[in-house]
TrEMBL record:
It comes from Candidatus Curtissbacteria bacterium GW2011_GWC2_38_9. The keyword Heme does not apply. Endoribonuclease that initiates mRNA decay. This is Ribonuclease Y. Residues 1-24 are annotated as: Disordered. HAMAP family: RNase_Y. The keyword Hydrolase applies.
């Protein structure tokens, strides 16, 4: 191929790509071709341009590489400089730490020497004091503590009073608000009734038919109902029904009223109406249980538990109807739980069933124990069972809900008119309160007032000073809480009065 065959007769193409970074090979190749023959003028110009472009490109690449190398060298120098500075700083800190360690070691040794000297000096002083005072170390310690207690007596009373005022300022408003809202929510219609069931008769003539020939009717009635029938000899036209079981008494009352209206009083008819009365009373109790649960917002209770709850309708304690008291306690507990952020369902259920053990009139044990057994039988949650078990503090409180049910029960039972208390029990409770107050040294007289809700204590001014009455009030309060059971709360007021008497002649 001739040298011109490289390009041919066509017009040379314009180069768009960069030449290789080693342009010397291209120059050698062109040189060889020039040795064989001569190129056309255009080819020479093009070759020169290519060579020039290759040189420019090589120059640019070299320049860029030099700049990059210079930049890398500069960064390396700066990095070496920073590392050197850090090494110097670490060396300085190492020297400082070593210096501080030496100082600490020296101080520790000095302190040990001083402690040994102080211990030795203290032992010598104690021995000298024991010889001088003729007291042992324990006797001296006791004497110092007694003196210190006497000196701090005023300060203790002051601190107690300040703490009381601070707590009252923070808690009084909130407590009043919570209890007021709870009592409003727990307001129920109240029925003041005692456990005496009686049936009025239209005439004394019906008494004879109730007794029957040779007393067969009254015997059949007592056998069917399980109650005792009392017919007054006086012309009162009233029949009294006596039984320890209030449900039996209610069944007997309903059956007797039907018999009086029916006028056909005979053993067969008595048995028939008694069975009918049992079914009616059972249905009434079941309905009462459902209404009570719905009134406090509980709807997922078993029928057996509702039937048991309804039995409280005919149960009274201190003249207080237990079903009404249970509903009231549940409402108060639920409201307090809402205010405090506790579990409202647990509090409502615990309050509604807290006295459920009172329906077990024929079993031995406290109503708390019997109530826990019934709750377990009905598969109540453990939290509700704890509320029942702890509402009289027979067990330590295990949850906030248990405390709330205890408080709600106390509020329900302590409100005016809730309960009827026999005079003998009332007088005994007041006497116990006064006896506890007078058992403390320095108490001259004590008076229980406001139905036992406050105790006024008068002290001897020569025995108890102004600061001592604060401590005395706390001691009386703690003893009352520990030894007595009472509804509501008792306010302890300690009075110290100093009188100066003289006679002008």
């Amino acid at each position: 191929m001739s040298p011109l065959g490289i390009f041919g007769d066509q017009k040379p193409k314009q180069h768009t790509q960069k030449l290789p970074q080693k342009p010397k090979k291209v120059i050698v190749s062109i040189g060889k071709q020039v040795g064989k023959g001569s190129y056309p003028p255009d080819a020479k110009v093009t070759a020169r341009e290519i060579i020039q472009d290759a040189r420019d490109e090589a120059f640019r690449i070299k320049k860029a590489a030099e700049e990059e190398a210079s930049k890398i060298r500069q960064e390396s120098l700066e990095l070496e400089k920073r590392l050197a500075q850090k090494e110097d700083l670490l060396d300085e800190r190492t020297v400082q730490v070593e210096k501080q360690e030496k100082q600490l070691t020296t101080l520790r040794e000095a302190l040990l020497i001083q402690e040994e000297e102080l211990a030795k000096l203290r032992s010598e002083l104690v021995n000298k004091l024991e010889k001088i005072s003729s007291l042992t170390a324990e006797e001296a310690k006791k004497l110092i503590l007694e003196n210190l207690q006497s000196q701090l007596k005023n300060e203790i009373a002051k601190r107690i009073k300040e703490a009381e005022e601070e707590v009252k300022a923070q808690a009084e408003f909130r407590a009043r608000e919570i209890l007021a809202n709870a009592m409003i929510a727990g307001a129920t219609d109240w029925v003041a009734e005692y456990t005496v069931s009686s049936v009025k008769l239209e005439s004394s003539e019906i008494k004879g038919r109730i007794i029957g020939k040779e007393g067969r009717n009254i015997r059949a009635f007592e056998l069917a109902t399980g109650v005792d029938v009392e017919l007054d000899s006086e012309d009162t036209n009233e029949v009294r029904l006596s039984s320890f079981d209030p449900i039996r008494r209610e069944i007997a009352r309903v059956a007797l009223e039907w018999l009086v209206k029916d006028t056909r009083i005979q053993p067969a008819r008595i048995e028939q109406l008694v069975e009918k009365a049992k079914a009616l009373v059972s249905q009434n109790m079941s309905d009462a249980g459902r209404r009570a649960a719905a009134e406090v917002g509980l709807y997922n209770l078993s029928q057996e538990s509702l039937d048991g709850l309804g039995r409280l309708k005919f149960r009274y304690s201190y003249g207080q109807n237990q079903l009404i008291a249970a509903v009231e306690t549940a409402k108060i507990a639920k409201k307090i739980a809402e205010e405090l952020g506790a579990n409202t369902t647990t509090c409502a259920t615990g309050g509604l069933f807290h006295d459920i053990g009172k329906i077990e009139v024929e079993k031995e044990g406290t109503h708390v124990q019997l109530g826990v057994e019934l709750a377990k039988k009905w598969n109540f949650p453990k939290e509700v069972i704890d509320c029942i078990a702890q509402h009289h503090e027979d067990e330590p409180f295990s949850s906030t809900e248990s405390v709330i049910v205890h408080i709600a029960d106390a509020v329900s039972g302590a409100r005016p008119g809730a309960r009827h208390e026999p005079v003998e029990e009332y007088i005994r409770r007041l006497s116990n309160i006064e006896n506890i107050a007078t058992s403390f040294a320095g108490v001259e007289k004590a008076y229980a007032i406001q139905a036992g809700r406050e105790i006024r204590v008068i002290v001897e001014p020569t025995v108890v000073d102004d600061t001592g009455i604060v401590t005395l009030s706390h001691q009386i309060r703690e003893k009352l809480e520990k030894e007595l059971t009472y509804p509501g709360q008792i306010t302890v007021t300690v009075i110290r009065e100093v009188r100066a008497i003289d006679v002008a002649k």
